[in-house]
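Re: beginner question about structure tokens

> Can someone show what the tokenized structure looks like for a real chain? I only ever see the sequence side.

Sure, here's an example I had lying around. Input first:
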Amino acid sequence: MGEEEHLSNSPNPDTEITENPSQQEYSWPAIRFDVPPQRTSHFSRQFRTASNPNNFLKGVKWSPDGSCFLTSSEDNTLRSFALPASANEYVNGFSIAADAAADSYAASLVMNEGESVYDFCWYPYMSASDPITCVFASTARDHPIHLWDASSGQLRCTYRAYDAMDEITAAFSIAFNPSGTKIFAGYNKLVRIFDLHRPGRDFEQHSTLQGNKEGQTGIMSAMAFSPTHNGMLAIGSYSKTTAIYREDNMELLYVLHGHEGGITHVQFSKDGNYLYTGGRKDPYIFCWDIRKSVDVVYKLYRSSEHTNQRILFDIEPLGRHLCTGGQDGFVHIYDLQTGQWVSSFQAALDTVNGFSFHPFLPMATSSSGHRRFLAPDDGNDELHLSGDENCASVWSFSVASMVENDVEIDADDHNNSQNLLQNP
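And the corresponding structure tokens:
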């Protein structure tokens, strides 16, 4: 395809600057985290093949409109799973113990990258009702950044960066800016910015090191924008630091130190005042107040001190709680007001490496698994994946009763809100 054709197929953020009207009118339910969630869907069989029996998941992210979620796995493949139109079709209709070998349903789309996937992210104004916006970006080893069509699984276009030898260099982390007009990509001591509507090899390049050699070193491994559109960008590095930049000119504001390992995930609070960072072989998620970034506000424990694996956490839509997995197979829930542990539930018999909340329903999805090595002379079959060690699951939470417009809404009414997915 030529670039002109790519351009015509790329999303037009000017038509999607406002959020989905259905989501604006919908009142987010208050999730009851004191009640364990129900597993409503389970996927494991389709991730294992004869050629790759020890395949494992590496992350999961729900789409901005809530119509589907995307998984990344060790077999260099991205899979999209569509949420059924009504949760009643499968709630309580699937028993893990009764049929652990079966999946709830097959992936809607399967996209193979060919090499190990470093990162992936959704277009911020993605809506199933507008096919032009149904895209997500991914980056893989020795590959350019790919923009995928989330409705067909076809490759829309590519964004290519070249090194000094004029060879393609892969981004280690990617993120759309809040307005959806650019893709920010992290490299070794570099950030490159691509115009979404200009595929190819045109980009802005910014060094994370300043003239006096101060700044942020290492591979830029994770990035996130403030959700309040205040122009702040957080970038984590494998040099164990997180830095805050201005989006418009990539001016370095300050650098945060303290993690024991390279940063693998960064996320802003819903009000944009706090930043949460997690690292590899580091048992704590740090909370920083970006208005006075001198000390850590508090630390949230998770079982991750013995793995280099990227473990993704997420904040629920109301912004009051954070959920994170770990090597113990549990999802731990913390109150962000106090930093105190609230509850936990077992999501898998393996490392829970990904957790993502539905954008407006009391649901979440998790991913689990980790790399295993089988000794040639051992023959120990226990090291192979079995049961729900390597799996993705969808969870349904109970909601607290609440009063909205003088009408009482009880915990059962959230099932009716599934109808929003039919007309997003």
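Each token stands for a local structural state, so reading them left to right follows the chain. The chain has a mean pLDDT of 82.
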